[in-house]
């Protein structure tokens, strides 16, 4: 069942007038055009749109990987758009977990060791084994990436992202390189983390089926938010099919 996003819920992100322009030679590419958006504590949001709609750019700005050309982003009581590079680094390290389409695991390290790369620099981390148990990989902790399937590698990447206990989990096309069955296992892991840890979760995708998992669906096109809908019939990951 979808969460009731009552007004008293804490606002985690507040974005106002977010514009992003990339200057490519003599051409200006407008990735975002005046986006206003609030994300709330503990919710599961899907940002849905075609390639080039601006969803990855918006996710990167929320995560402190990129900065807007205009506008403001507030994370809780902190104005991200006023942060310098060192403050953004601390913000990413302490508050945000990232999951990307490609797993970016270190081939010479086991699953446990890949996760430990994060826990060793985190303030209040889980044990790497605990994080891997959350994604049902406790029997693969001493396996290397080459010994695991694509879905297993992506779940290691998810464990790595959540092992530092982030307040926010940002996922950029996490199933884009996976088949349906494997993708559902990955989505199940993300959904379980959102529910068990209360992690504010945003998933960007062009796959409309994944929107059925969300508390809210945010539609983007041409750098604009074209609609926001509350999902009254939220599904579990294992109920999805495409």
Automatic annotation (TrEMBL):
Q: What is this protein called?
A: Putative ABC transporter ATP-binding protein
The family database entries (InterPro entries) matched by this protein are listed as: AAA+_ATPase, ABC_transporter-like_ATP-bd, ABC_transporter-like_CS, MacB-like_ATP-bd, P-loop_NTPase
Please, which domain of life does this record's source organism belong to? Bacteria
PROSITE patterns referenced in this protein's UniProt entry, alphabetically: ABC_TRANSPORTER_1, ABC_TRANSPORTER_2
- ABC transporter domain location: 13-240
Q: Which GO terms describe its cellular component?
A: membrane protein complex
* Stored Pfam families: ABC_tran (PF00005)
Keyword entries, A-Z: ATP-binding, Nucleotide-binding, Transport
What GO molecular functions are on record for this protein? Answer: ATP binding; ATP hydrolysis activity; transmembrane transporter activity
